[in-house]
Design brief:
With about 350 residues, the protein is mainly α. The chain has one domain (about 10-130, about 150-345). It has twelve helices and no strands. α2 crosses α10 (about 260-280) and α2 (about 25-40) runs parallel beside α11 (about 290-305). It starts with 11 loop residues before the first helix and ends with a helix. Residues about 1-5 have low confidence and may be disordered.
Length: about 350
Amino acid sequence: MTQSLIITRTSLAEAFQPKANALNAIRLMLATGVILWHSFPLTGGDIADGPLRQLLANVWVDGFFAISGYLIVSSWIRHPKWWEFLRARFLRILPGFYACLIVTAAVIAPAAILLSGGFLPADFWTDGVGYVVRNAALRITQYGIAGTPLDVPYPGVWNGSLWTLWWEFLCYLGVLVLGVSSLIRRAWVLPCAFLVCLVAVIATGYGPVDNFYLAGGARFGVMFVSGALIYRFQDRIPASWPLVGVAFAVTIASAWLPDYRLLAALPLGYALIVTGTLLRHRVFWFRNDISYGIYIYAFPVQQCIAIFGGAALGAPLFALLSIALTVPCAIASWFWIERPSLQFRKRRHAARA
């Protein structure tokens, strides 16, 4: 008697549950990783050039962009209305961003300077207003306030993390353009976009091109499109732990290349997205997402620690103290700014319905 053996394979589309996944937990891990990496230059140390430095310096933010590409394209496909799409992106990023700028200029920076025994420069408050206004369009053009902070390993910068948000929003606009034109639904568009980004990675990481904007577009574009590509073909992509292990191994091995994203963009995106999908236990299903708050407040908190002599702690202890002091700021940002903004959008949508 012959018995047929049927091997079933679960696709990512079948496995992913929008309200029962661990992507918020993954993003929280990535935000914490950014704190760890920044703790090295903010304590006056560094990691020698090599595979470890490339991974620690890049993998956290790159992971954010890959997950974002997956979720943002999903958002457009589910609700392909340009105004609702833009409003959702504005309400997710801008309220918390503006609050962070104001709190940094009006509270964190002056308090750190005064409590450490220093004096505010004569033009501090005027330049503090300029800090908020000049950076209001997401593109960070002013990093310090009246020359502060001083006497720290990374002087003249109050927040060295916010600059990536501009690139994030450019990726959102790219999705909007492809969505409004209906190109995003064509099977060849996202693979072509990914290839274009890979060419830019080669040109900037391996070739003679030395351009900040092309390098930034290549770095963030290839990661964002990798997540978008995974979503676009999620019904054909298997979701399994062995493949996650292979993807992480490829990512680590790629760190020996001049730019690890040449090989690791898709594996890293797959590893993080599928890990967030396959973590089934409820303990990983975070309903409150404080990762954005941790990302935007960590750097000014770390600068404050450095002002008070925390750089002497060394990177590991400095990172732990930074996490402990940043989490309350992130919780306040989520419950007082970010979540109310998102709930406002949901109430408006429900009212129209």
